[in-house]
Design a protein that fits this description.
Blueprint (H helix, E strand, L loop, with lengths): L2 H24 L8 H15 L3 H4 L2 H13 L3 H14 L4 H13 L3 H14 L4 H14 L2 H14 L2 H8 L10 H7 L4
Helix pairs in contact: 1-2, 1-4, 2-4, 4-5, 4-6, 5-6, 6-7, 6-8, 7-8, 8-9, 9-11
Length: 187
């Protein structure tokens, strides 16, 4: 690959990442994707289509494609590129998170939890993985394990204590004494 073609491919990846970042700013969780966001996210996918075949299958291109599809609400389609990323690079936390997000929204909660458990094998110190797994475990009714992972997330990053206050995924276990103990500072 020539330096010029490498620079062109890097520019395409940056453009696609920029479109996704802008589009995601306009998307609200669990609400329809606004047309302006959809245009930006589709533009990201079109930019990625401009890559040569070999570059289109790179982990970065696959991650961007998966993120654009996820943000568009095309969750089933997003799983394919995100799965390709984690198979090639299990350290890519954002790909695992994206897969979990999509699987949850496809009502495949056991698979979403399994995905995050696999991610934790590669990145056990990632608070966000523990936090999201705690959310999914809460939804599944497994309060003890949810609290265990939430406690680990808070231990790694205290900001998750505050986030847990507003997170609807914790509603099923919010009154559980273990949850209360984990989310409230000792006086």
């Amino acid at each position: 690959m020539t330096d010029l073609s490498r620079l062109r491919q890097q520019a395409i990846l940056r453009h696609a990442a920029g479109y996704i970042e802008l589009g995601e700013l306009l998307v609200e969780t669990d609400k329809p994707v606004p047309p302006s966001a959809a245009r930006l996210l589709v533009r990201a996918l079109e930019a990625l289509d401009g890559l040569p075949d070999a570059s289109r299958s790179s982990p970065m291109a696959q991650l961007l494609a998966g993120e654009a599809l996820r943000a568009l609400g095309r969750w089933q389609e997003a799983i394919t590129p995100l799965s390709a990323v984690v198979e090639r690079d299990p350290q890519r936390v954002e790909a695992w998170l994206g897969m979990g997000w999509c699987l949850k929204r496809l009502d495949r909660l056991p698979e979403a939890m399994d995905s995050l458990r696999r991610a934790l094998e590669s990145a056990p110190e990632q608070a966000i993985l523990h936090y999201n797994l705690a959310c999914y475990l809460s939804l599944s009714g497994d309060a003890p394990t949810a609290v265990e992972h939430l406690t680990r997330a808070i231990t790694l990053d205290h900001r998750y204590r505050e986030l847990s206050e507003a997170e609807k995924d914790f509603d099923p276990i919010r009154s559980d004494p273990r949850f209360v103990a984990a989310t409230h500072l000792a006086v």
